[in-house]
Design a protein that fits this description.
The protein is α+β, with helices and mostly antiparallel strands and about 280 residues long. The chain has 2 domains: about 20-160, Regulatory protein AraC (Jelly Rolls, Sandwich); about 170-275, Arc Repressor Mutant, subunit A, CATH 1.10.10. Helices cover about 50% and strands about 20% of the residues. The chain contains 12 helices and 9 strands. Keywords: DNA-binding, Transcription, Transcription regulation.
C-alpha cells in the first residue's frame, strides 16, 4: 500500500471514529451460573465484555461462542438468547445509539480483546463495577470512558480487516448523511428512492448505486432495518402491535407481523411476551 493511500485510510478512520457518538445509559456487572439461559434484546446499542467463563449467544439465529477476554458489540440493538457454558462473570454496557451505528453489522465480535488491549479492558472493569453517578462529573467521565472503549473496539475491528469495504469512507459522505438522518427521523414515512435521491442531491440511479456501495444494502432494506429497531423500542415500551404497525408505515398489522418475524424469528406479541417473562440481559 502506498504512503498516500495509508494516510488517506488513517484520515478516514479518524473521521469515522469522530463521527460516532457514545453516551452511556447503563453499566452493570453480571454473573451467570453454568447452564443458565437468559433472553436479551431491544433497540439500544451496547456491548458485553466477558471477564471470566464462556457463553453461547444465539443472536437472531446466528450462534456465536464468546470466551473470557472477548467483547461483543451490538451497534444498533439486538435480540436473542444467551447460555452460560460455564460460570460467567461479565460487564454489560448500554449506550445511546448514534445515527451511523446503523451502517455497522448486526454484531461486532473482537476475540482476545483483553490480550490485545489490556489497559482498555481495565477501563471496562471501572464502568462495570461503579455504583453510578455519585460524584460531580461522574456522568461526563463515564461517557468519555465509554467513548474510549467503544472507539478502541471499533479500531481493532478495522485493523483486523473485518469491516466491509469502504466502511470508514461512508462516514465522510455528507449527502448520504442527510438521507440517513431523514430515514431515522421518519421511519414510518412512505419513502421512495426518488425522494431520497433528491435529499442526497443525486440522480436516482447514482444514489441507489452509491447507497448500496456504502451501506451494503438497498435503501428499502436499510429502511426496513430502521423500522425493526424502532419497532422493538416501541413494543418494549408497551406500544400495542397495531399502533406500532401504523406508526411505522405498514398498511396492515399482518404485514408488520410478518416483517417482524422475519427479522427476529418471532411474531411481535410473542417477542414482547418472552421479553417480559424472563430476566432481562439487555
Amino acid at each position: 500500500m502506498s504512503a498516500p493511500t495509508q494516510a488517506n485510510n488513517a484520515e478516514n478512520v479518524d473521521r469515522a471514529l469522530a463521527a460516532l457518538e457514545w453516551t452511556l445509559q447503563e453499566s452493570r456487572r453480571e454473573q451467570l451460573s453454568a447452564g443458565e439461559h437468559r433472553l436479551y434484546g431491544g433497540p439500544t446499542a451496547g456491548f458485553r465484555y466477558l471477564v471470566d467463563g464462556s457463553l453461547e449467544i444465539d443472536d437472531c439465529g446466528t450462534t456465536r461462542l464468546i470466551a473470557a477476554g472477548d467483547v461483543i458489540l451490538w451497534p444498533h440493538g439486538s435480540c436473542g438468547r444467551l447460555r452460560a457454558l460455564t460460570d460467567v462473570d461479565m460487564v454489560s454496557v448500554v449506550f445511546a445509539p448514534s445515527r451511523w451505528l446503523h451502517t455497522l453489522p448486526t454484531a461486532v465480535v473482537i476475540g482476545g480483546f483483553r490480550a490485545a488491549e489490556p489497559a482498555v479492558a481495565g477501563l471496562i472493569d471501572t464502568i462495570g463495577t461503579g455504583p453510578g453517578a455519585t460524584r460531580p462529573g461522574d456522568v461526563v467521565i463515564c461517557n468519555r470512558i465509554t467513548s474510549t472503549i467503544v472507539s478502541v473496539v471499533m479500531r481493532t475491528w478495522l485493523e483486523r480487516g473485518c469491516a466491509p469495504d469502504l466502511w470508514a469512507d461512508r462516514l465522510a459522505e455528507p449527502d448520504l448523511s442527510r438521507v440517513i438522518d431523514a430515514l431515522h427521523a421518519e421511519p414510518g414515512r412512505a419513502w421512495t428512492v426518488d425522494e431520497l435521491a433528491r435529499a442526497a442531491t443525486m440522480s436516482r440511479s447514482a444514489f441507489a448505486e452509491r447507497f448500496r456501495e456504502l451501506t451494503g444494502r438497498s435503501p428499502a432494506s436499510y429502511l426496513a432495518g430502521v423500522r425493526m429497531a424502532e419497532a422493538m423500542r416501541l413494543l418494549n415500551d408497551g406500544e400495542p402491535v397495531a399502533a406500532t404497525a401504523h406508526r411505522l408505515g405498514y398498511e396492515s398489522e399482518a404485514g408488520f407481523s410478518r416483517a417482524f418475524r422475519r427479522h427476529t424469528g418471532h411474531p411481535p406479541a410473542r417477542w414482547r411476551r418472552d421479553r417480559q417473562a424472563q430476566p432481562s440481559a439487555s
